Amino acid sequence: MTNNGTRRPQRVVLLGGASEIGLALVSALDLPPGAAVVLAGRSDERLAAAAASLPSNLDARRVWFDASTPEKHGAFFDELFTDQVDVLIAAFGVLPRQTEAEQEPMRAVDSLAVNLSGQVSALLHAANHMRRQGHGDLVVFSSIAAVRGRRANYVYGAAKAGLDAFACGLADALRGSGVHVLVVRPGFVRGRMTQGMKAAPFSTTSAKVAAATATALRGRRAVVWAPSSLRFVAFAMRLTPRGVWRRLRF
Amino acid sequence: MSSRGVARTFAGWGRTTSSISLSARARDEDELAELIRAAPARGVSSRGLGRSYGDAAQNGGGLVIEPFRPDAEPVLTGDVVTVSAGASLGSLLETVVPRGLLPPVLPGTRQVSVGGAIAADVHGKNHHVDGSLGRWVERIVLIDGLGERREVTPAGDPDTFWATVGGMGLTGVVTEATLRLLPIETSYLRVRARRVRDFDALLSAMRDSKPARYQVAWVDAFARGRSILEDGEPARRRELPDGVARHPLECQPRTRIVAPSLAMSPLRPRVVRAFNAAWWRRADDGERVVPLSRFFHPLDGVGEWHRLYGRRGFLQYQIAVPDGAEQVLERFVTTLPDAGLTPYLVVLKRFGPGDDGLLSFPRPGWTIAADFPSGDPALARALDEMDELTASVGGRVYLAKDSRLRPDVLTRMYPELPRWQKIRAELDPLGRFQSDLDRRLSMR
Fold first, then answer.
1. Nearest Cβ partner of B17 from A4, A34, A218?
2. Chain B residue nearest residue A131, CA to CA
3. What is the pTM of this model?
4. Which residue of A has its CA nearest to B377?
5. What sign does the CA torsion over A175, A181, A182, A186 have?
6. Are B49 and B67 in contact (CB under 8 A)?
7. Cβ contact (<8 Å) for B440 and A3?
8. Do the bridges between strand B149-152 and strand B173-180 make them parallel or antiparallel, or are there none, so unpaired?
9. What are phi and psi of B172, to 5 degrees?
10. Where are the beta strands (DSSP E) in A187-250?
11. What is the pLDDT of residues B348-403, one digit of tens each?
12. What is the pLDDT of residues B323-347, one digit of tens each?
């Protein structure tokens, strides 16, 4: 957030404009009155509801954006960046039901088109524009699922692992350009996306993830785990012998 | 062809909000005009010595033009000097002081460029007597948005002149200026320091007694506004102590030490509180004769002192409020410290009548400047409130210090903004002059 001496952004873009975590982060950023918030997504109805949920002193706008049609991203981002963007939050994503994805491989592919290809396309476009404007923050939502593929959600995990690797590389590539990338690795977040699922250990809420992310942004950190204890869990996960890992049910 | 195309990170003196741009230097006015005509989409901004605290002299994603001919010799005719816009006030002092002349307006540091000083219409500790810099500028040379050279005087083209003085560099690039100087007998001041026990006493002391030509109060916000009030008069030759009387016009400003680059700031509330208390105890209520640089530019004794605030940088908040709005000033030593937001350094001064600069900061009454370490989210909200309060009493924020004001508040603080915008559009019809400050505050 480079555009204000108290580190408050003036124009924020939320890709996945109805995302609970994304909206919680917009609130946690403590934007100055009058700041512009661009909510981008496919369903105008849900974007309208999202806009209504934001504080009324923000200037919320809605634009159509579809992550799964990357051929249209060029025009979308050209238009978006006619005014400068201080923070871009890439909060869109889908959580495929693992069993359905196994039975219908196209479902798995479709989820990758959003969670991985769509993210890569959007982030590259945004990074190029931010490089030209000389400043900006990109917020990328990875996941604890990116740490190690597990049988209960390896399709989702594969997309997040790919995205995590991509985002870390992008962060390094942007070093010195004035553009900063924050990789957020939340645990199981109770909310709309995980409705009807049994909560995993170390589960958290959108508001908690958002608060941790906002703090990390202010401090220009590279990675934030939410909850912060997850970094040790992730370490343990990597060390777990495969035979044991396979048998774990969570 | 001028050198161009080097990507550099630019930040203000407060180091809170850097951005990256290409930087270029022009050797003469033709090259400068060429750079302006070839402006990239995100425009050009001219930069002096980077002493604006916020984002006035940076232009993320665009082009930043480095100081114009910083080493050109000033040309002195009588008590009038013509100086290159890229030259520093410090170098000007070194030329004119030994000849018995002084720039009438000296801001808190000598490390500012003449162009930057005009763009911010800077004021000094003598504003209540001598006004701001614009009053002393007889002529400027301005390269406008089409690359055309204009010689501008306040009488010949008042619109261009008063849009440029205080115009934050957004009407064109000033390449040289002609300034009127004040005759001085010595390069020393007689300074009388008074210790004032609290803020109320300070306000009445400053309001009720006739101030000297130069006056400033250093306020300790950790101690409820306990202050040291300094009044300075130019020293006459016969008033100098014997040791220095033989070199009455000596001008040897020195930077004694340079602050190191630090990741963590050593400045903590407890440290600053102790330092301020020691400073108070050390001060004596007497009159001394001191070199002008020690009075005008005490902080210049430590090079790069802004580094002491660490990597996160700091924020200086300076406002002007009219007489009768003292309750706004009091907040710096009451409300803000009570909320855990104690400014480390507070400076209070009187302002006299303002000049005709459309965006010039000074207006009659008071000005107060406070330094805060950056990074506390509560500070953002507290200063937003201060903005509202300041606007509601007819006050304003100093743009040269600003990095966080909001566009809607700006229009209330600077009622002449629409007129300035109109003149700006005439001088730069293609919108080539831009800066981060300009974009943040939607000044076009």
1. A4
2. B61
3. 0.85
4. A6
5. negative
6. yes
7. yes
8. unpaired
9. 155, -175
10. 189-190, 204-205, 223-226
11. 999 999 999 999 999 999 999 999 988 788 898 899 999 999 999 999 999 999 99
12. 999 999 999 999 999 999 999 999 9
